[in-house]
Amino acid sequence: MASCSEEQIIAKYTARAEKAEKELETLLEEVAKLSSSPQIAPSEVEVPADLEKLRTDNLKLKYRIDILKQSIAAEESSGGSSGDQGQSGHNMISIVARLTDIFQKAIQSAFPDVPDAPIVLQSSQMDKFGDYQCNSSMQIAQIMKGQGLKISPQEVAKRILGQVEQTDLIDKLEIAGPGFINIHLKIEFVRAQLRNLLLHGVQPHNVGQRRRVVIDFSSPNVAKDMHVGHLRSTIIGESISRLLEYVGHDVLRINHIGDWGTQFGMLIAHLQDKFPNYLKVSPPIQDLQAFYKESKVRFDEDAEFKKRAYDCVVKLQGHDPQIMQGWKLICDVSRKVIGEIYERLNVTLIERGESFYQDRMVAVVKQLQDSGCLEHDEGREIMFVPDRGVPMTIVKSDGGYTYDTSDMAAIKQRLHEEKGDWLIYVVDAGQSNHLETVFAGARKMGWYDPAVARVEHAAFGVVLGEDKKKFKTRSGDTVRLSELLDEGLRRALQKLQEKERDKVLTPEELKSAQEAVAYGCIKYADLSNNRTKDYVFSFDKMLDDKGNTAVYLLYAYTRIRSIARNAGVTSEQLRSAAETDALSLDHKQEWRLAKLLLRFPEIIDHMLADLCMHTLCDFIYEVASTFTAFYDQCYCIEKDRQSGEITVIHWNRLLLCEATASVMSAGFNILGINPVSRM
């Protein structure tokens, strides 16, 4: 129901409109009397200057009343409540979700004896087929045929149409072909939704219950450089996190770094030899990767050093104060280097390394032993889980723990201590068997119920070079991520200079554009590919300003934002126009663009289901392409050919430009791409 404040606003505007109506009637009566007077010629009648202004103001008041009523009706029709995530009537609406609900009720009423009747809804690809299509009739006819009932898909469609309730959403329905139902949206509904978007921003639609999400991504190793292999997990994980935060979920971003184990024994032993005074003076380790390689060579070639390294591991596990200080020093140096990468990519994570789970592993092993889930096998303690052929090794023959142990401790901690009811592991596809075994182990222990908690592996393919082999340097080494980002900056600046942007942008604007293009193109090239597939890394392709690339989209966004600015139109004027303009969508390109923008919630739902971000990339590209067709055919601003002065501003079209930029900006934010106003 409408709130008290909403009713008061409507009452205030209505009173003002009624008062203005009476004044208008009085003025019109006076004009009519003067015009009918035999002593005065009609041409001599002076119409009061306030008359036209009063008429315009009155129309605006009535228009605002209608908008308020439509907003309240839309809120009530979507359930009348703010949902589970504190959402208001200003949030966007998923049109396909509303239509699904409408047609589900209609199909259930028309065919109550068809269990789980399929609801097949999609946006139409051609104008002649309406705006959306319900394609359930053919499948229902097949189901009924299996029940021994013969009915044509067209007859099914007719019965469905007979049960569709009247709504503010649907203008008309028609049956086409063998039984397709074409759905035409009401223009008033589309206008109201666009106006809501313009006035309140691209607010997320209601996605149901707010979840506690724990997402594990990036996960580099301490003392080793982040390399191109960490790129996908970092970029995909950040984007998924942004998506989930956008719709209102409580997201904990975990960086499960490798900060424990045998390698720290050799690192600390090497530290003791190279910087014996490390406990008092912080050693000047500039290149931790080189430091690691030095220690590894000694570990492999020097038996005495190898023995000392193992001794250091034992002391580390026993939390010896001096060894722990060396461990902390190495972690701090590594953390600083890793943090610089995250800052450049605008990535946020909370560090929870393997060291965090050491005590928890002891508790988990005891629980597994007490529950009788462990079996002895050649000195090891292993755990078999349902439907997995290879068991987990929980305790090694030397009494040490494994990745299986730490991952079992981690999943329990995330489910029970963090109260996570949605766990996501953004890890390469090569870890699928391992993770599925861990998930099965957690289910066997009763740590979570799949009907309540969603636990999944967001797997991704590898990054390939242009030779279609694993992306490496010419010498065969793994590509450092910092060097990759530096190369991106160099090429982005070169691209901007080729377009002579350095001559029109300030140094600060040029630097912002350079970073937006460099980091944006690297992220977009990854995210625009289906994450489950391998993809070829090519700076030449990702920096192309044509086609589905970040460069093209960033340029398109900047151009759209500049249209109103170049016309001298302020954001305040645009907001005022959004409140009062009728937003006519008469031209077919206006209608196409408006409908497409309102599909944003559908795209969000699609990504929430499969966690694949390329769907959003494809959508943003479609928006940019559809906008180009609109802008080519629909003048937003008209100028005098001689003087170049602006003669006409089509406010409804400027508002469509603003709405387009807002939706693109919201999409960029989810992808972790930072657009700039000038480029």
What report would you give on this structure?
This protein folds into five domains: 4-77; 95-185, Arginyl tRNA synthetase N-terminal domain (Gyrase A, domain 2, 2-Layer Sandwich); 213-258 and 353-457, HUPs (Rossmann fold, 3-Layer(aba) Sandwich), CATH 3.40.50.620; 262-351, no CATH class; 521-671, Isoleucyl-tRNA Synthetase, Domain 1 (Orthogonal Bundle). It has 23 helices and 16 strands. The protein has helices spanning 4-36, 50-77, 95-110, 137-146, 153-163, 187-200, 228-246, 262-274, 288-301, 303-317, 321-345, 358-370, 403-417, 432-444, 481-498, 507-527, 539-542, 550-566, 571-580, 588-597, 600-610, 614-633, 651-671; strands at residues 121-123, 132-134, 170-176, 180-185, 212-216, 250-255, 350-351, 375-377, 380-383, 392-395, 422-425, 454-457, 463-464, 535-536, 637-639, 646-649. The strands form five sheets. It has a five-stranded parallel β-sheet, with helices on both faces. Strands 1-2-4-3 form a four-stranded antiparallel β-sheet. Strands 8-9-10 form a three-stranded antiparallel β-sheet. It starts with a helix and ends in an 8-residue tail after the last helix. The relative contact order is 0.09.
